[in-house]
Amino acid sequence: NAGVTQTPKFQVLKTGQSMTLQCAQDxxxxxxxxxxxxxxxxxxxxxxxxxxxxxDQGEVxxxxxxxxxxxxxxxxxxxxxxxxxxxxYFCASSSAGTGGYEQYFxxxxxxxxx
Amino acid sequence: xxxxxxxxxxxxxxxxxxxxINCTYTATGYPSLFWYVQYPGEGLQLLLKxxxxxxxxxNKGFEATYRKETTSFxxxxxxxxxxxxxxxxxxxxxxxxxxxxxxxxxxxxxP
Lengths: 114, 111
Prior knowledge:
The complex is a heterodimer of chains A (114) and B (111).
Chain A: E1 4-7, E2 10-13, E3 19-25, E4 31-37, E5 43-51, E6 54-57, E7 64-66, E8 76-78, E9 87-94, E10 104-105, E11 109-113
Parallel strand pairs in A: 2-11
Antiparallel strand pairs in A: 1-3, 3-8, 4-5, 4-9, 5-6, 7-8, 9-10, 9-11
Chain B: E1 3-6, E2 11-14, E3 19-21, E4 23-26, E5 32-38, E6 44-50, E7 56-59, E8 62-65, E9 75-77, E10 86-93, E11 99-101, E12 105-110
Parallel strand pairs in B: 2-12
Antiparallel strand pairs in B: 1-4, 3-9, 5-6, 5-10, 7-8, 8-9, 10-11, 10-12
């Protein structure tokens, strides 16, 4: 199993550009989520999904869009990039059968918006 | 809402020293508690977990006990190694399955 994969690893955008961060998992997990990591702030939840076709907002959803058409994929779209979205983005997944809702994380995408 | 407060870093120790990283939480109900570790340039990996009061999670020489009476989940290791240098995150998971993280503690172990 590859686990949780994310692409790209690094990205530089200009203000106002849009892009999609890809996330895929091969563990048949129904729960997937996106976090952003900023210095001194831990990880903050952007959006999450409890299954295909179902998404909801987390703590910091503004400026981001998600959809979940398949169990495996959960892309994160930046609609119009802003410098405040410079961050490291992590995708995670978990299974209803996992004790304590342990989440598995991808390697991250480092995004810089100039 | 849920929140996690963990010891501010950075923490610098000599090899074989004793490590404690404090973590306290605020949550409704009975959350599950986790410690995650992030090595440089990598994603987060689960280090250990505890799902109910008085449970002790342990892995790779690290331990943490779920203390409901003090709402704490402090991370300890008796003898740290250089390879333990990383950022450590305390987190909780409530009924909605979402993880709430502390701000992270940078640990550097010197040889």
